[in-house]
Amino acid sequence: MPEVTLAVTSGDGSGNxxxxxxxxxxxxxxxxxxxxxxxxxxxxxxxxxxxxxxxVVLDHxxxxxxxxxxxxxxxxTLRRRPALRVERDGVVVTxxxxxxxRLRSVLNELLTGLPAEPAENEGGExxxxxxx
Length: 132
Fold this sequence. Notes:
The chain has one domain (about 5-130): Alpha-Beta Plaits, CATH 3.30.70. About 35% of the residues lie in helices and about 25% in strands.
């Protein structure tokens, strides 16, 4: 089943993955039966600690829309907005400005492998890392 990994990043390194996880867990589980998981993974050598990441299995058609809506709603509550890092199979996309439409487009592209059609007035920066 398709799975994506989400991380919240900010310039000062104080991403709030825990708050996003709690938001998603309550919103997605109740309405769509999705079960996001919070996992800690080792960070690259030379840095301390572990990175908290959210893993979500997208197992039905409404899952992408539900995840995009819930994540965008959470970002909308923040005064100071961090970036969102989305990963699938080693392909990483970092969105500096999270909108429901842009996130839905990125998720569709990552899950299908097909390029997303450009949305009108996308705005925001996107950084993409492909596996070597």
